[in-house]
Amino acid sequence: MGSLGEKILVVDDNAEFIDFIRRFLESKGFQVSIALNGKTAIEKTLSDIPELILLDLKLPDMPGEEVLKSIKEINKDIAIVVITGFGGEQVAVDMMRKGATDFLSKPIDHQVLLSSIKNALEIRDAQIEDGRFDRYPSLEKFFPFLAHEIRNPLHAISGALAIIQRRSDLKDELLSQSIKIISEEVNHLNEFVQECLNFVRPPNMVRIAAVETNEVISVVMNIISHMFELEIAAVETNEVISVVMNIISHMFELESKNIRIVTDMNPNLPKIYVNYEEIKQAFLNIVKNAFEAMPEGGQFTIRTRHKSDSPKCIEITFIDNGIGIKKENLGKLSNPFFTTKLRGTGLGLAICHRIINERHGGRIYIESEENKGTTIKVELPVGRPLGEVSGVK
């Protein structure tokens, strides 16, 4: 981010704030221009369209809402992050409904600002490159606000809980149990918010088209730039699974004692070109579901193999003999928020689908029978995925 010199227009009449923002963003590689009022902001947008605008709500010559409307009429693809003072949150939410991507409240922390800009630019790029993302137009605007509104009080609760723990007699069993419940619920909500954000985070995909011979160099450079952006790397599939199983052993420390783990891993698998963290998250979601499906214990099997037929791919099979899934629910598993669990978010497999199918050109196959167990097969192409395959079968 900032490596390509994205243009950011800062619209604010506070000279001290502008100086702070300009110096910080320029140090991160952005091209920064300034507008002290709404009219100048509109003129600069017409003459030199920025990728993102930081827009203060209170300007000396016109309301921020009018500036937002005018800018969106000029170019609807410009990402706009609204800046508010104390008490402006409700207005900012209304602005998001009218096209803003996010909002920030003054005073603004460096890292919060950077994170908001990164998220806004990712959403902007995805909307331009992939019209398919219009399936979730309201979600992409709602969840950043959801995260902001939920995480702030959660952080306050966590801080207050830490003080209570330090000053309380934890030998009191009822008090200790109550603190544990609060802590678990805070963690559950934090995980839910993160899963929501993971789900709506735009899929970045490389578009490849037929080219003439003299265009090969430019195409190659385009691919390389995307590889850097997406942190694509050569990854050992078995190594990722080993890391995931280590994490699971800590997450399900008690349950693991009653679950027999069987592994059948091909040691000679070719490397796959993927985003390591995303694939790890997808595998973790699948294994976590399997362990949760065996509350009384059972057997969990993982197999890996190299399918040399066309197209060449790595096949990873996850098998549990847990409670299984009803036949009528199988087709709904990749739908966001569909869950059969009492405390499930319904986003685990939806995230897996987006990571494996949409972002890496792979496939997920799910077979299950109630009270007998579930088998999930994941296929990931050998070599860097350049297209898209979607669908859960």
Write the layout of secondary structure elements.
Elements: E1 7-11, H1 15-27, E2 31-35, H2 38-47, E3 52-56, H3 64-74, E4 79-84, H4 89-97, E5 102-105, H5 110-129, H6 137-167, H7 173-200, H8 216-230, E6 232-235, H9 237-251, E7 259-265, E8 272-275, H10 276-292, E9 298-307, E10 313-320, H11 348-359, E11 363-369, E12 373-381
Parallel strand pairs: 1-2, 1-3, 3-4, 4-5, 7-9
Antiparallel strand pairs: 6-8, 9-10, 10-12, 11-12
Describe the 3D structure:
The chain has 393 residues and is of the alpha/beta class. It has 3 domains: 7-129, Rossmann fold (3-Layer(aba) Sandwich), CATH 3.40.50; 140-200; 213-381, Heat Shock Protein 90 (2-Layer Sandwich), CATH 3.30.565. 46% of the residues lie in helices and 19% in strands. It has 11 helices and 12 strands. The strands form 3 sheets. A 5-stranded parallel beta sheet has the order 2-1-3-4-5, sandwiched between helices. A hairpin with a 5-residue loop joins strand 9 and strand 10 (313-320). Residues 130-136, 202-229 and 385-393 have low confidence and may be disordered.
